[in-house]
Design goal:
With 299 residues, this protein is α/β, with parallel strands linked by helices. The chain folds into two domains: 216 residues, Rossmann fold (3-Layer(aba) Sandwich); 61 residues, 2-Layer Sandwich (Alpha-Beta Plaits). Helix content is 34%, strand content 30%. It has a six-stranded mixed sheet. The chain has a four-stranded antiparallel sheet with strand order 2-1-4-5, covered by helices on one side. A four-stranded antiparallel sheet has the order 12-13-11-14. The longest helix is centred in the middle third of the chain and has 16 residues. The chain is globular and about 70 Å long. The chain starts with a strand and ends with a helix.
């Protein structure tokens, strides 16, 4: 289990991370979210031991993270860190040896993952000759080649088409099933919703929302009503508690302050014609994220 306890990090007078605490249990996928500059990268660097916290403590399975523990950590960075003049084999051998693996073991694992990601023909190609998507696959392999117990994934799907996103998702789920602790960071909230049981949203280094995703969505008072049919949108727009009406090609979405206003919308809708859908949903994580981050910046 990874544990951060009241972690703060200063760069001179700039507070990059502010009293951050969270836990990631074995076999759990945890979302660490925020805008660029929110403190995510600094947090990752502290977790892998590249930076020391100014205050607080970071432990992995109860031990302070230092070089004797970093071999059990895998990190896929948002910025590519590949050596572009190396071949794929040379690159993965380099990373595997850094993680304490034997050459034969590295080559066996490499063959497995190249085959898994349908790029075995690129084994002896230089990194710079690969497409962005295939470079991302090599970056991913470099992060998982040693079967880490803690896996940090920062924007893992960059440059991937939908088929390869699914391939990555399958592998991430397998690592979760095997008991690895996983920190997942992405600006694509739909990806976070697919994976993460718990999350923290950072703004200017400080947590503004944290907890289990199900509870966050349940406790967030706003609701969305999806409606298909001929209804008087002007009447709905003027109802108390209606924040916005979004018109799409085949439906409209009424956004409410809270569920206490659902009945008043229904009273208008039931007088409409050919109503085939009236469905109340919790807001998406994307909406919650925008709202919480926006609240902080508006203060």
């Amino acid at each position: 289990m990874l544990k951060l306890s009241h972690v703060t990090k200063y760069y001179d007078k700039l507070k990059a991370v502010d009293d951050l605490s969270f836990e990631v249990k074995d076999g759990e996928i945890f979302g660490l979210l925020g805008l660029n500059g929110a403190g995510k990268t600094t947090t990752f660097r502290m977790i892998i031991g590249l930076l020391e916290p100014t205050e607080g403590e970071i432990t992995l399975n109860g031990e302070k993270i230092d070089y004797h523990l970093t071999d059990s950590i895998g990190f896929l960075t948002e910025e590519r860190s590949l050596l572009t003049k190396y071949t794929v084999e040379e690159q993965i051998l380099y990373y595997g040896i850094l993680k304490g693996m034997e050459k034969n073991e590295i080559l066996k694992e490499l063959d497995y993952w190249l085959n898994r990601f349908h790029i075995k023909e690129y084994k002896n190609r230089k990194i710079k000759e690969l497409s962005k998507g295939n470079q991302q696959k090599i970056q991913f392999i470099s992060a998982i080649i040693h079967h880490p117990k803690l896996l940090i994934l920062d924007e893992p799907f960059t440059g991937l088409d939908p088929i390869n996103v699914e391939l990555f998702m399958d592998v991430i789920r397998e690592f979760k099933k095997s008991g690895s602790s996983i920190i997942f960071s992405s600006h694509r909230m739909e990806h976070v919703e697919m994976f993460c049981e718990k999350l923290v949203i950072l703004v200017k280094g400080k947590s503004v929302l944290e907890g289990e995703l199900k509870e966050i969505k349940k406790n967030y008072r706003r609701k969305n009503i999806h409606i298909v049919g001929d209804v008087d949108l002007k009447k709905i727009e003027n109802l108390k508690g209606v924040l916005e009406i979004q018109k799409n090609a085949d439906e409209c979405i009424v956004k409410l302050e809270s569920d206490e206003f659902i009945d008043s919308v229904f009273e208008v809708v039931k007088k409409g014609k050919e109503i085939t859908k009236f469905e109340v949903e919790d807001p998406s994580l994307h909406e919650i994220f925008l709202n919480k981050v926006g609240e902080v910046y508006e203060k």
